[in-house]
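Dissemination and training. As part of the outreach component of the grant, students in the summer workshop were shown how a complex can be specified as a set of sequence lines and then modelled as a single object. The example used during the hands-on session is reproduced here so that future cohorts can follow it. Participants entered these lines:
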Amino acid sequence: MNNLRLLMPETVLATLALVVAFVDLVLPARKSRVLYHLGWLSAAGVLGWVALTMGDSSAHGTGTLWAADPFSQFFKMTTLLTCALCLLLGLDYAELPDSGAGTFSALMLLSTAGLMYLVSATDLLLVFVALELVSISSFILAGFERRNPKSNEGSMKYFLFGAFSSAIMVFGISLYYGATGTTKLAAAGAVPGPMLILALVLILLGFGFKASLAPMHFWVPDAYEGAPTPVTTFLSVAPKLATFAAIARVFGAIFPLQTYDLTLLVSIIAALTMTAGNFTAMFQTDVKRLLAYSSIAQAGYLLIGLAAGSPLGREGVMLYSFVYVAMNVGAFAVVQAVGSAKGSYDLSAFDGLYKRRLGLALALMFCLLSLAGIPPLAGFIGKMVIFSSAVQAGQWWLAVVGVLNSCVSVYYYFAIAHRMFFKEPSDDSAIPVGAYVCGGVAVAVVGVLLFGVHPEPLLAGVRASAKMLP
Amino acid sequence: MNAPLTLAHYMTLAGLLFLIGVFGALTRRNIIGILMSIELMFNAANINLAAFDRFLHPQGVTGQALALFVMTVAAAEIVVGLALLLAIYRGADTVYAEDFNLLKG
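and obtained this result:
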């Protein structure tokens, strides 16, 4: 075990998760809300630690099964940020029983720790174990509202698809081991034979499940609709982005897509994912389902950057990932506030929101416009970099599909905005907004606006942290 | 008659098991059946790993170690799955996949 110290942040986070779970046992039930605070403070603390050691070269290096580099640290930061924000949202989510606070926070932290291991993994053994840590914790999180049959059903479907795809991935890993004699990703003598290519395709399918790519995306709407809203927020952001980081490491740096003739396959998956997500989102009446399909489409945009296979593409993926945290968490936070107040996530709950809570309506509008990629919001910058990387790589058809898809997405994002500003509310009472939701929304909207009008610091940061160790 | 078993035999067995698992997971109506099919897929990978260790890389143990990890993780996963199934069964009184239709759109 060389350089175990490189994994200190995630190991400390996992330990903190166990501490939270243990404190839950000894704490009287009426005080359990403290554990949410303990949870988000742990995530925020580790986030600060990773951010401070970002430029410190002694925190970088390679170990037995892992590598810590600026690239992985960047994605660790996005994951931790999402986790902290989602735990804050959990504080204001009434459907979660207070008695479950410890388990909930501990599982969120464990899942985040798994994602942090995943983005650092340079060995398929660690990739597999980390993915399973994430999967098993999120199956439980998705079914956390035990009395809600929808939550149960969503998590069951999530589980079945998850177990199925990890079995596919494990079979891929076994073939990889047969073809190369090692589970290390940087297999020096790997010859591109049919067995290796089949192994890589199966591994890609396994990743595709977590990142909700097209043939493996059927669980997404059900799991997202059933899961408690803070969990939906987490699932729609953190595992997706971390999996993209893992795909970028495996298929960008170590097995270049071009060498293994997989570029076309990945491009087709990207086009399918965008199209399937956007065209199904148009017909949704439940806002959580709508955002679920929208997040599938967003995964398609992100995959364009990887299909391009160039440094610019990777920078685009990182930039868009960071922006995606802000806009998706912001959108889901507003949805949670409105949905909890109305007791329903139907689109009609948003009718005339501007009269009932102008701040929420504006915040949601900014996040949706950013998701649609309208300038001058942050989503536009991210999409621009990704699409231009596709053009630069000669895959102009993929860029065209992406732009057309963005146009389609404007339709359903505006449908929500239309309801908020041009319809009459069924009742005029103000929607209560908890302090923590308010904070989450504020952070998200500031991010969406700030990085939209002033993207240079973010661009510079991304460029500085695009470096990846083998 | 007594031809020795070669790698091809093991790989064929693993491939067949995997395909049976995939077929079962996609067509079974009973959730327990789906779980069993998924276990078949995991075990197909384990056979592959052990066979590769024996025939291709006899000095290494990575394959067997990985197979141990796979078994452990698969067990943990199934525990969660059965717990979820139990929670559903208490509410809906069914273990058939087509009865889970609250969520659609």
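The mean pLDDT of chain B is 88. Students were then asked to discuss how this feature might be tested experimentally.
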